[in-house]
Specification:
It comes from Methylobacterium frigidaeris. InterPro entries: Lipid_A_modif_metabolic_enz (IPR050177), NAD(P)-bd_dom (IPR016040), NAD(P)-bd_dom_sf (IPR036291). With about 325 residues, the chain is an alpha/beta fold. The chain has 12 helices and 12 strands. Strand 4, helix 3 and strand 5 form a beta-alpha-beta unit.
């Protein structure tokens, strides 16, 4: 079994792309699965793009030949058809991981935690369904646990980073990719904390964990702390510092979402997530720190500036179509 080859599903997305590039930089041979590799803007990314469909187990198994690590970071775009597509996609990766005896890595998030988990849930906190996406996420984690394959789940807060996708609150509400920042749509509740995760830090954490394979339990779960915004104002202030001028913050139009739901299916999914902007849920990274010694952490101002440059909101390289 090759110890330094990885297969990444979802390498054109935020998490998958960040992990794939970090693995390549660390010396891994990285294959990236895509239904049409010819459409991918590669920019000498160091990845070996292979044709295949994440829904087809035979494609994933073939692409995983020789791999010791499979990163399952693929999701249906815009949360469409999650209930129908997410678990079959994961099953295909489980089949491949079992066939080549690889560790299967799943990026997780805070959606698995409800009120029963408490305000600072650890990696083993109770998981109770609160939303439809939460129930799906819990089902995904359960599927991995029951599969028996070597697995790693790393949960993090809301993602932001230079290649943040349109599924992120940062690029879907706070700022508009490709445009200067003048107004921010603020979904938060004043005084209520919110947990964010910088994509390069998430990728670095995954790669460090993968590098200590022999020490990981067969089913390993960790939570990241990321960037905790204690009052819901710090992220907005960091954006203003990055752009160098005062920005106007307007309330996110939560009340309009029910009206938009018939013509915009994503509206219902967004509305379900409102509890994370009303209640402080800060995942504890105690288990991660105990294992790694420290959590990779980029200072907030640096992370925000790099994110805005990557999204085309500040001078620098703008986003490609594959990245937003």
């Amino acid at each position: 079994m090759t110890t330094r080859m990885a297969l990444v599903l979802g390498a054109t997305g935020g998490v998958g792309g960040a992990v794939a590039r970090r693995l390549a930089a660390e010396g891994w041979t990285v294959r990236a699965l895509h239904r049409d590799p010819g459409r991918v803007r590669r920019e000498a990314d160091g990845l070996a793009w292979v044709r295949g469909d994440a829904m087809v187990p035979e494609d994933v198994v073939a692409a995983a030949a020789g791999a010791s690590l499979i990163v399952h970071a693929v999701n249906p775009p815009g949360y469409r058809d999650w209930d129908r597509l997410v678990l079959p996609m994961l099953d295909a990766s489980i089949t491949a991981a079992r066939a080549v005896e690889a560790r299967l890595v799943l990026p997780g998030n805070v959606y698995v935690y409800g009120r029963d988990a408490g305000p600072t849930p650890g990696a083993d906190a109770p998981q109770t369904p609160r939303t439809s996406k939460g129930r799906i996420r819990i089902a995904m984690e359960a599927r991995l646990r029951e599969s028996g394959v070597r697995s790693l789940i790393l949960r993090a807060g809301d993602f932001f980073g230079p290649r943040t996708t349109a599924n992120s609150w940062f690029s879907a509400a706070l700022v508009r990719p490709g445009r200067p920042v003048r107004t921010i749509l603020d979904p938060g509740t004043p005084g209520t904390g919110h947990q964010w995760a910088y994509l390069p830090d998430v990728a670095e954490t995954m790669v460090r964990l993968a590098g200590r394979e022999v020490e990981l339990p067969r089913f390993a779960t960790f939570n990241m702390d990321g960037h905790w915004d204690p009052d819901g104002r710090q992220m907005i202030a960091a954006i203003a510092r990055a752009v160098g001028r005062k920005v106007t913050a307007r309330r996110f139009p939560w009340a309009l979402l029910p009206l938009a739901a018939p013509v915009w299916p994503l509206a219902r999914e967004i509305r379900e997530m409102r509890y994370l902007w009303r209640e402080p849920v800060r995942m504890s990274n105690a288990e991660l720190v105990a294992f790694l010694g420290a959590e990779p952490h980029t200072p907030l101002d640096e992370a925000v500036r790099e994110t805005l440059v990557g999204l085309g909101c500040l001078p620098g390289r703008g986003p490609s179509r594959e990245e937003i």
